[in-house]
Amino acid sequence: MKKITEIIFLLSLLSWTSYAAVNDFCVADLKAPDGPSGYPCKPINEVTADDFVFSGLVEGNTTNPFNAALTSAFVTDFPGLNSLGISAGRLDIGKGGSIPMHTHPGATELLILVEGEITAGFMTPFHLYTKALKPGDVIVFPQGQLHFQVNSGNEKATAFLAFSSANPGAQLLDLLLFGNSLPSEIIAETTFLDVEQVKKLKARFGGIGIVSS
Amino acid sequence: MKKITEIIFLLSLLSWTSYAAVNDFCVADLKAPDGPSGYPCKPINEVTADDFVFSGLVEGNTTNPFNAALTSAFVTDFPGLNSLGISAGRLDIGKGGSIPMHTHPGATELLILVEGEITAGFMTPFHLYTKALKPGDVIVFPQGQLHFQVNSGNEKATAFLAFSSANPGAQLLDLLLFGNSLPSEIIAETTFLDVEQVKKLKARFGGIGIVSS
Amino acid sequence: MKKITEIIFLLSLLSWTSYAAVNDFCVADLKAPDGPSGYPCKPINEVTADDFVFSGLVEGNTTNPFNAALTSAFVTDFPGLNSLGISAGRLDIGKGGSIPMHTHPGATELLILVEGEITAGFMTPFHLYTKALKPGDVIVFPQGQLHFQVNSGNEKATAFLAFSSANPGAQLLDLLLFGNSLPSEIIAETTFLDVEQVKKLKARFGGIGIVSS
Amino acid sequence: MKKITEIIFLLSLLSWTSYAAVNDFCVADLKAPDGPSGYPCKPINEVTADDFVFSGLVEGNTTNPFNAALTSAFVTDFPGLNSLGISAGRLDIGKGGSIPMHTHPGATELLILVEGEITAGFMTPFHLYTKALKPGDVIVFPQGQLHFQVNSGNEKATAFLAFSSANPGAQLLDLLLFGNSLPSEIIAETTFLDVEQVKKLKARFGGIGIVSS
Amino acid sequence: MKKITEIIFLLSLLSWTSYAAVNDFCVADLKAPDGPSGYPCKPINEVTADDFVFSGLVEGNTTNPFNAALTSAFVTDFPGLNSLGISAGRLDIGKGGSIPMHTHPGATELLILVEGEITAGFMTPFHLYTKALKPGDVIVFPQGQLHFQVNSGNEKATAFLAFSSANPGAQLLDLLLFGNSLPSEIIAETTFLDVEQVKKLKARFGGIGIVSS
Amino acid sequence: MKKITEIIFLLSLLSWTSYAAVNDFCVADLKAPDGPSGYPCKPINEVTADDFVFSGLVEGNTTNPFNAALTSAFVTDFPGLNSLGISAGRLDIGKGGSIPMHTHPGATELLILVEGEITAGFMTPFHLYTKALKPGDVIVFPQGQLHFQVNSGNEKATAFLAFSSANPGAQLLDLLLFGNSLPSEIIAETTFLDVEQVKKLKARFGGIGIVSS
């Protein structure tokens, strides 16, 4: 009979290990609306091991004009990440391919090169920080910095990515400038690009512009 | 046909730019209950430019016994501020007017004087930090410090305010002490004010006391 | 009539003291789902003094095999604590009793000894930080560290506890290792314990294992 | 010989358990200047168990005009608290004594009553939240709220305090208003107190005013 | 003699209001190195009211090719802002002038228009959020978003700015892309700009490139 | 001559892009003492691309009794990570190998399996969350949870790791319990292990105990 008593006591010791343990983890209830610090917590009795595992961070299809593919494991695919301040991705870039200039306004990115050669870097107003990376090299792009990744080798390149947010946004510079309804004259005035250049790129990217005003 | 392919690819690059981008911004859904880090996010497809713009930070009506007016642009008026840790206000003080002693328990305040002269300051147990401000002067009242603003010039004074919170509370000392049901004897005992002084001010401010117990 | 005008003006000064003052406090609405930064806020007009007071942090019943009792005052019992980053507890340990090894993954713990003698400490991979405490001694167990408390005196010992979280979880090492469905062979392999020892303790604690996979 | 190899391997597993473990704990080097998030860390090889233990949270001397005593265990006395967001205190109030109105601009306070009766509370512009506390009651004063504690019983009262900061400041209202060089006229204007009352209290508290300008 | 005793007692009540009050404020010691959460604190006895006041947020000189001027009040000019998460600026744009596309990777910006008309906005990959602002309008640019400001009226425009950081960085897009040693071919490849356009702008902005590798 | 004027103007626009940009990044000055939020910042003119790149996250040597190797890229090796809340590692486990039970008190861990099969999981008092992982699977171990990794396949396994801290500590359970001077009797009492088992493991791990008291 001792066992029962002990377990009851241990359970009572744990009476404060409440089922809504705000500090230990909070698996996303993805059906509820998102909030400033993440999604509300799924009831603990509905949480399973599958909430903490994501499958499919495998090689993407690079047969596109850019010879590149990005795969992501963010909180919307992987509810166990909620509020933990971390997520993952995978980058495949074929020979001659590249990932265009972009920023992540809400996350630092870490890139671990596992195969091939990637030249990557970020810029501040006065400096360029760049390097040709070999397998086993890791580069960090601090939060909000404009950065790029180019396959500078003779073969396919593969990297794993980690982000300091469960749900990092990505902002491709061309879509910001040319993919919406911002008038060509304002773009030209505020970027110093020639209007013809702006119009050419708006023609290329502008079809997806959605006006919000 | 290349354009379509490119856009599809760019969109796939952006597949992780999910519509619930927790880190980029989270416009308040003001109909939902508030939480410790702000309001839940409005669905991104309901967000418009108007969520990020507030109109009406103009001169207030100072024809009142205090010759002063405060106007605010906080998250409850301006849902784009949600969780961004900033908000704004405007202060107009007529000649001879002042803003009584108060604190903001959850926000630092920055005051930018644009017209007239204001003498403002805050106190710690051992020091007074105060200055007569001229247009172009900026003063900071660190979070939670008791502070005051007095028109010390010969004309109307105007200032813009910024707060380090999307929804700063304001606590006027007189309302804290004399505007509720706290018994006069306890007030006198814990402030060293004379009981007659307390009763006089309770008569002035006490009508709005609401007992919570 | 002046009084009315003044109060109206003061109220207008307070127009920004909105009822959803995100920064001042946010009493938990315990009927709503928890989130990463705590519970949503209860409407301010439903908040009473009772939300900020907890009753019952009194001596627990130590007539159990461990001669010990833990009592807690966490947000789930005490909604005024929501998002304030603090909570309380009380520990009573009879002569010869002890609290087994455990961690709080999301909170630092402070123990204030008020009666008797407790030997307590925590460990890092290279060091043991321990002390026999007398009444009036305070010890801190930094967040996430494995720690223990043993009554090392000749009488009952009592301590008050504070945690740097409104809702700290507690993880008893024995329940982590022996109280669930983790196979004995994996436990033995990853702890270097003998399999017989593992099986003996699983028999003692294992009845409450719940498989999640 | 196996043992040596194993330990070397375990040490190598721990090679990343660097001596400057920024996340685990950071004991204050109190000889270095303080910073926004606390003191710099003491070298780990100088850290001892004594850094995590404070002695002396015992009954204070209440033979003063206020029949009250406060004792504190903050980071400046107790370097192991550095950056952990928690600290402790003890409050003794003799019969008829009280602690005057004050705020902690940077910390929430938790009061655990262990002996006697204390009536305590805090105020917002529209409400008073107060209660007569019995032993075993806990009350929370959210960060930055003006609050008070009065011995409302027939005997000495004792409470333990916890704060959500390693180094909470305390601001006694009388010292803020009357203990420095703020001119009586400005105090009267911004508090609505009578000038005579202000002068009376400045005479009582004003001797310690230090002008900073 | 009572006064002395009382003050001594009040001082002892304040014994915990230590001079290094980590939570109340921490004025920057600008001669010490900066850290992740700001500058170390200046000793409290060297702090004066001047640390909390900045003078000079006045109209800038707009007689330059861009008809625009920016003035700032950041922690490096204004040490009282240290770690308080707020700072200020002033923007003057002459008729026909504009501020080029830029981001603040570490701060949200609030713009309060006081005179003239400014059309301002920010872009996400799929949307443009923009508005022509009138005096009294406030617009928020969430942290890290690419944004612009154009004088769209017939007269000079003036705005006050607030930032959610004591020391916001500013990244002008043209300097990021064309002001450093990043090779024209990589810029063209990762922005889809024509190489001739890139070379033209590098010639215009490239003189200040500094290679870091 | 226009170019010079423009650049001077742009530089003046950037006058607030101070060299100590607290928000953009803060590369660690590893010669200075660590603090609660990381290392002080290296002067910006000493920062190079190499600060943002780490080389050597390659296969470790698994010819040891555990058939396992861990390699890390933390702030102490990689100063650009300072205060960015992220770091990386690599795990190689030979056939039959495993990583013993451990916690990271200050970081969430993400494991990306790239080769072989690893069975990994973590435990709470009532549940086990575990899974046999295939290449392309990602698992998250929330901050402070006790977890393990076992090679459950027929070949070598390789994984990349990311942590939500620039400098995560690692606490191997055996070293915590058996690798220091904690007396066998206290270990037995607070873990329910048999004393003989404790002594056996202390003999295996105890040689590196360092007493701190």
From TrEMBL, chains A, B, C, D, E, F:
Keyword list, A-Z: Apoplast, Disulfide bond, Glycoprotein, Manganese, Metal-binding, Receptor, Secreted, Signal
Domain Cupin type-1: 55-199
Transmembrane portions of the chain: none
Domain of life where this protein originates: Eukaryota
Keyword match Transcription: no
GO molecular function per UniProt: manganese ion binding
Annotated S-S bridges: C26-C41
InterPro entries: Cupin_1, Germin, Germin_Mn-BS, RmlC-like_jellyroll, RmlC_Cupin_sf
Residues binding Mn(2+), per UniProt: H102, H104, E109, H147
PROSITE patterns from the UniProt entry: GERMIN
Subcellular location: Secreted, Extracellular space, Apoplast
Gene Ontology, cellular component aspect: apoplast
Main location: secreted
Family as reported in the entry's similarity comment: Belongs to the germin family.
Record-given protein name: Germin-like protein
